[in-house]
């Protein structure tokens, strides 16, 4: 496992990380989650990503249980705040009140004194950015978080946060977490990366396999045992369109020609970018996790010819 700096900070994160979205306290049993965390740590992963909105805090509870027994100093734990997790009009967003109450709840769920990274899960148009920056700075001063970041913020919003932080002598966001994959790349590469590079921010990308579409498992339809076949995951079926599957089928065939699993090739393609600090992966079983871990070894095989071939397959995508 290789470790990359989180932007210009001194924090080092594993280039492959394990996320809890949809799986912990949801799709998999708690014991399976614990086994996956243990296997991930043994495989070199030190970065585990979560959010207070995942199963309304349930995923944090499962992750908190799963990391018991692992030396805290060897772990990088992140969680997020924004989506509704409490009753009432102040039970969501990025107000000082909601952030302050949410970090206390998250730390209790995770059984931790602090989290390494605390993300603003989305931009809040109802809260002044200065209030967000000041609150995050206060959490750092209190030792409840070490770094803070943004997720799916627009470049101008990120720039505003940094401008305010610089003007007031406060700590700006160190990392952005966008969706980034072969089917969703233009916004990240053309508008986001120039801004994160300018401000020395890391990128921790989520949904690297586009909900599993890039693995090729939906090429011939939705398997009965797949995530998209579950009734509570019916929203995923809107992502499995013929428009998307056509290039994915070509990509799957190309990966097979290279004797690489398409999921591994997708992850290696992301890791080719030095702007990416870590790729957040999900897993429901150990074999998936182990396959993902091997992706980091394949980056060296992505020469200019391979990258050009991949670009030609997805040339009509964003």
**CATH overall fold name:** TIM Barrel
Globally, the shape reads globular
Order of helices and strands: EEEHHEHEHEHEHEHEHHEHH
Termini separation comes to: 30 Å
CATH homology superfamily: NADP-dependent oxidoreductase domain
The overall average pLDDT, rounded, is: 95
Strand order of the largest sheet: 3-4-5-6-7-8-9-10
Biggest sheet statistics: 8 strands, parallel, barrel
The low-confidence runs, each spanning 5 or more residues with pLDDT under 50, are none
How many structural domains in the coordinates? 1
Q: What's the CATH architecture?
A: Alpha-Beta Barrel
Number of helices: 11
CATH class: Alpha Beta
Q: How large is the radius of gyration?
A: 19 Å
Helix content range of the residues, please?
Answer: 25-40%
Strand elements, count: 10
Briefly note the structural class of the backbone. Answer: alpha/beta
As a percent range, the share of strand residues is 5-15%
């Amino acid at each position: 496992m290789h470790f990359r700096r989180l932007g210009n900070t001194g924090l080092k994160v594993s280039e492959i990380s394990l996320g809890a979205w949809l799986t912990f306290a949801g799709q998999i049993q708690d014991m399976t989650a614990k086994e996956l965390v243990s296997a991930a740590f043994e495989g070199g992963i030190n970065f585990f990503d979560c959010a207070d909105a995942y199963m309304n805090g349930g995923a944090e509870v499962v992750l908190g249980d799963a990391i018991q027994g692992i030396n805290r100093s060897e772990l990088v734990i992140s969680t997020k705040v924004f989506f509704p997790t409490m009753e009432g009009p102040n039970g969501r967003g990025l107000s000082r009140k909601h952030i302050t109450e949410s970090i206390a709840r998250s730390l209790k769920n995770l059984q931790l004194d602090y989290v390494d990274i605390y993300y603003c899960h989305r931009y809040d148009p109802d809260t002044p950015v200065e209030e967000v920056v000041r609150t995050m700075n206060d959490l750092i001063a209190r030792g409840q978080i070490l770094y803070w970041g943004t997720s799916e913020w627009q470049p101008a919003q990120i720039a505003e946060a940094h401008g305010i932080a610089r003007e007031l002598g406060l700590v700006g966001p160190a990392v952005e977490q966008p969706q980034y994959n072969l089917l969703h790349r233009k916004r990240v590469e053309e508008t986001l990366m120039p801004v994160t590079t300018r401000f020395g921010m890391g990128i921790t990308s989520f949904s690297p396999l586009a909900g599993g579409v890039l693995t090729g498992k939906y090429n011939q339809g939705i398997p009965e045992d797949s995530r998209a076949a579950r009734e509570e995951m019916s929203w995923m079926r809107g992502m499995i369109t013929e428009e998307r599957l056509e290039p994915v089928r070509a990509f799957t065939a190309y990966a097979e020609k290279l004797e690489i699993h398409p999921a591994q090739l997708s992850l290696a393609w992301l890791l080719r970018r030095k702007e990416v600090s870590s790729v957040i992966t999900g897993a429901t079983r150990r074999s998936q996790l182990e396959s993902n871990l091997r992706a980091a070894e394949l980056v060296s095989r992505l020469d200019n010819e391979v990258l050009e071939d991949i670009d030609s397959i997805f040339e009509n995508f964003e």
